[in-house]
Amino acid sequence: MTTNWKNVNNWHWVEKNCIPWAKEYFKNTFVGLKEESDNCSVEITEIKKFNGDVDVNQRKGKVFAIYDIDCDFAIKGKVNDIDIKGKINIPEIAHDTEEDEYVFDITIENENSEKRPIKDLIRKQLVPKIKSKLVNFQGDLIKSNTGDVYIPPEKMTGHPVNTTTNIVIDKQSNEKGETKKEIVSLGSWNKSITVKDEFFTSAHELYSIFLNPNKVKAWTRSGASMIEPKENGKFNFWGNVSGYITKLVPDESISLKWRIKEFPENHYTDVTLSFVQESDRVVLTVNQSGLKIPYDEQVKSNWTNYYFNPIKTTFGIGLVL
Question: Any idea where the Activator of Hsp90 ATPase AHSA1-like N-terminal domain is (predicted)?
Fold first, then answer.
């Protein structure tokens, strides 16, 4: 039986409105959160307001989330024997918001000096707990809704599935390790590549996109991806690309020891990402050495397909090539 004839190879843009899912997620995740101190207690009792847009999108086989939410949590609590009600407003929960950028506006009904200690409890104990759960939202959103926008290759029955061809015996491997195939490698590990692209953002922001753990999870669309944003810190993208950071020059360059699973054991390439700020954009240059045929051409195209283009679509900062 043939399937998915309208969107072979996941080529067309597919979008799912995930507002109902997100509302239920926030209810299940945040309602009931509570904190206590010696004379104070506070608890989130309901999601009082949930406005905005939450979409999961797929284009050319890439799945990503775009959302911007304005949310109110209703709260109740006590200071000594005084009953307290109020709300916590988070005016912007967005796909590109960093953990330290969230704003929490706390309102207490009929606030006075006797009730004020509850604000300290909220800021010091409840807000960090909320933040720790907000950072999981994007990954959970994509994981739970990908099946409605993305067609796995094994379900593309009866239709040609897009594949990458290089010098192969009968197998091929891509950056994400989605297909395990054997590459015929030729020559010595002495090939170098250079890849350039432009992003309509600042060097500071693009530098952060490559190093911030939450942003890395966003543009890789993988909960398995991680990075330790420090020199000698490890990274792993998609479970297939790994290595460690050798040097960081804030907003200017990132140097890496970089490998994919198919490389010989303990073989790493040297990668340097250089960020040059221009008037309305930043030019990113990737220099990579220590490759061999056919990895050089494969890896060169993968920088565009698996790094640059997803970053542009996830954060809306460039034209997809």
Answer: 15-148
> What is the chain's percent helix, strand, coil content, to nearest 5?
30, 40, 35
Pairwise CA distance, residues 72 & 166, whole Å: 52
Taking the C-alpha atoms of residue 319 and residue 308, their distance in angstroms, rounded to an integer, is 10
Could you read off the pLDDT of 246-297 as tens digits, one per residue?
999 999 999 999 999 888 888 999 999 999 999 989 999 999 999 987 788 8
Average pLDDT, stretch 138-147? 83
Q: How many CA atoms lie within 13 A of 159 on its CB side?
A: 20
Q: Which of 227, 24, 50, 234 minimizes the C-alpha distance to 140?
A: 24
| DSSP H helices in 43-172 | 117-121, 127-134, 137-145
Strands 282-293 and 186-199, how do they pair?
A: antiparallel
Q: Which of 3.15.10.20, 3.30.1050.10, 3.40.50.20, 3.90.1150.10 is the CATH number of 5-147?
A: 3.15.10.20
Nearest to 82 by CA among 109, 107, 44, 105: 109
Phi and psi torsions of 210, nearest 5°: -80, -20
